[in-house]
Specification:
With 359 residues, the protein is an alpha/beta fold. It contains twelve helices and twelve strands. The protein has two domains: 157 residues, Rossmann fold; 115 residues, 3-Layer(aba) Sandwich (Rossmann fold), CATH 3.40.50. The protein is 35% helix and 22% strand. Helix 1 packs parallel to helix 2, helix 5 crosses helix 6 and helix 8 crosses helix 9. The longest helix has 21 residues. The two termini are 17 Å apart.
Length: 359
Amino acid sequence: MTALEDFELSRVDAFFRRITSRYEASERVSALVITHLLGERPAFLRAVGRLAEIAAVLPKPKSIDSRALEQITALLPVDGLERAAFADPARALEYLEVRAAGRRIVLLDVGGYFAPGLEHVCADFSGQVVGVVEDTENGHQRYEALGKLPCPVFSVARSPLKDPEDYLVGQSVTFSAEALIRARGDILQGRPAAVIGYGKLGRSVAAMLHAKHVGVTVYDCDPIRRTQALSQGFRTTSTLAQAIAGAGVIVCATGNLALREDDFAKISNGAYIAWQDAVAQPGHDITPVDIDLHTIPANPAKGEPEHWHADFRWLLRVQEPKVVLQAEEVDGYAWRPCADAPTPKLAKLATRLVQHPRR
């Protein structure tokens, strides 16, 4: 991740100061802030702090800049973020009581973390949940699925101001996918592409691929969006299976689950899969290199039928080779040279990526 220069950080800070100077809160409430803790985010949090008392910051685990984390930890309470914790209404309520008991509080959300327990929290919290501000389409859908809301929810996910961001994210996804393909000694052109989802991000990805002279097939579960894609000159299919059959590149551009376990059996060998949330944690350089698809025998003891299993393999470049095992899954590990990879193809690929990490 490229660090912002001091003058860039000053411009960001000045922008937020201009915005907050225009508004004067009638009363000072508290805020719980879920956020991508990137390099410019301290300026955003300082702006929030001018309008509300920040009870805690919960950085999204895959987007934490170490310098930003150091700055914020020195000023504000910072807690770990786990979706499972907020999925349990009792645990969510307990957390709010610890951080903001008896206060009027606004929940700033990125991804619908507060949605599962919102009704329970609003009913039993010792203070008052004034409202929720949601930033993403995925989170928007989670709150929308609740039906009748127990408090106001303000979503900026579908604001016109988000369009430039979605366009740039689409560019980034396409650029990263092509960089990975080139790192493997392949080229993007000549590979038919399937774009799953034709929302704002999917439209950007499809347009970028088309600009690179890649044939694009679009699938969206919404027939209106499929019609929109067709009107823009893209081939469309009425089923996901038709879209991914024969695709050399598959881009998952939807906030919902795009590919399920059974879908991998329909994907061509050697196809590349990119999805919008496949972002490395800053400072941790990881590269997806292979998908091992195989069947798992039936397990009557667990009530599991025979099914397909996909192992995603990653190349990780680390500074400190310390390994913490997940005991319920594995019981050992070993560092091996690339030549000892399970297959010759994987050994060749790993060697190439190690020798030419930025090619």
